Amino acid sequence: MACDCCAQRHKYIYQMGCPACEARLLARTVKPHRLAAYQRAAQRGQDVEALKASVLAEWKLDQEGKAA
Predict the structure, then answer these.
(1) Mean predicted confidence (pLDDT) in 18-30
(2) Can you list the positions of beta strands (E) in 1-68?
(3) Which of 1, 8, 29, 40 could pair covalently with 33 via S-S, beta carbons 3.0-4.6 A apart?
(4) Contacts of 42 (CB under 8 A, 6+ apart)
């Protein structure tokens, strides 16, 4: 599931509530904040491993964009 902001990922625009935007935001945050977000997700009963996988996928997309 993606939103209109996902088509403009290079502009650093995020829409809260969109799983892809939230994963991209976490991929671009510093590690201590990202770890805290994982802990909050675990407290809410969300699937932390799936969140980590989506954050890693977004991070890899960012790295590919930087290399191009």
Answers:
(1) 89
(2) none
(3) 29
(4) 48
Measured between alpha carbons, how far is 40 from 42 in angstroms, rounded to an integer? 5
Residue where the block lists tokens 């904040």: 33
Model-level pTM?
0.83
| Residue 7 in this model has a pLDDT that exceeds 80 | no
Tokens 């209109």 belong to 4
What is the CA angle 3-6-10, rounded to 5?
Answer: 155
In angstroms, rounded to a whole number, what is the distance separating the alpha carbons of residues 38 and 63?
22
CA-based R_g, the chain, Å = 12
